[in-house]
Amino acid sequence: MTTQTHPVDHELVQAAAHVARTRCRGDNHTMAAAARARDGRIITAVNAYHFTGGPCAELVLIGAAAAQGAYELDTMVAVGDRDRGVVPPCGRCRQALLDYFPALKVIVGNNDHVRTVLIADLLPESYVWADHQLDAE
């Protein structure tokens, strides 16, 4: 499979890195995410770690975007605190992002080698929840 890349939204990476640097403190908040809404706005969020398995920054971002009326996201990136750089979404987040935003682009990679790919390319042969729902009649 060949993954098509798209232009990298460096402003988005910088926004996530800024939040990771200035808002992530201690063990409760270690990741920041930023997404560009279809209308151009940038929405940011941080994870909410808890020993029971709190939500990743990408999942918090889905809720934060909805709370701000941004229901269509174009591109997303996650960045680790302590200058860890871009971090790809975990499997749970990949599935949720695919279900919410099937055309979403995600910035992945490390250091100076970041690239933008479609969420579907990060989850090949994926299960699409909506495809398996019975129509209510």
From TrEMBL:
Family from the record: Belongs to the cytidine and deoxycytidylate deaminase family.
Start and end residues of each CMP/dCMP-type deaminase domain: 8-130
Organism: Streptomyces sirii
Name under which the protein is recorded: Cytidine deaminase
UniProt-listed CDD domains: cytidine_deaminase
InterPro entries, A to Z: APOBEC/CMP_deaminase_Zn-bd (IPR016192), CMP_dCMP_dom (IPR002125), Cyt/Deoxycyt_deaminase (IPR050202), Cytidine_deaminase-like (IPR016193)
Keywords: Hydrolase, Metal-binding, Zinc
